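Hey, I'm writing a tutorial for new members on how sequence and structure tokens pair up, and I'd like a real worked example in the thread rather than a made-up one. If someone can provide the structure for the chain below, I'll link this post from the tutorial.
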Amino acid sequence: MTIHSIRRTAVLTAAAFAFPVALGVAAAPAFAGPQASGAFGPACASVPKEGSGSLAGMARDPVATAASNNPALSTLVTAVKKAGLVDTLNNAKGITVFAPTNEAFAKIPTARLDKILADKAELTKILTYHVVGENVSPQKLHKGSFKTLEGGTLTLAGSGKSFTVNGKARIVCGDIRTANATVNVIDTVLTPM
């Protein structure tokens, strides 16, 4: 699936449905288990050691399914389902997802989050802004800017194992591999300019 077909699917999906939703954000436990080879960041220490939510378990599933097995990403998974992007993300190849944690969504005032979740077009725009149509390996993270499926740009900065996205979101567990994507878990929801 190409970037253009993913973007087109996201736009068509947003235009086709509207689901009014009010979602209360409840704090979920952070990741729970040891760091695996390749993954980096402070939250990786709490990824489950075994099971479908572990790093090995996530590597077996496509990205949306893998995220659904991780309790720290439950709000993101709910939003992806509401936007109708599960199949789009699961069928894409070689993408990178910057995945906000439940705590990242909890930073958004409840009334604002409810409004976003009730507006499928806006929700789709925000979610596709978190997806880059290429594999952004740790070696590429320091290289600057990457075009998102939404059409905007994410700017990364940092070195070693400490990176920020757009100068405000920190990668708290990076380089998580799924069957079709690389996931970098972030601590802030990003908004398109």
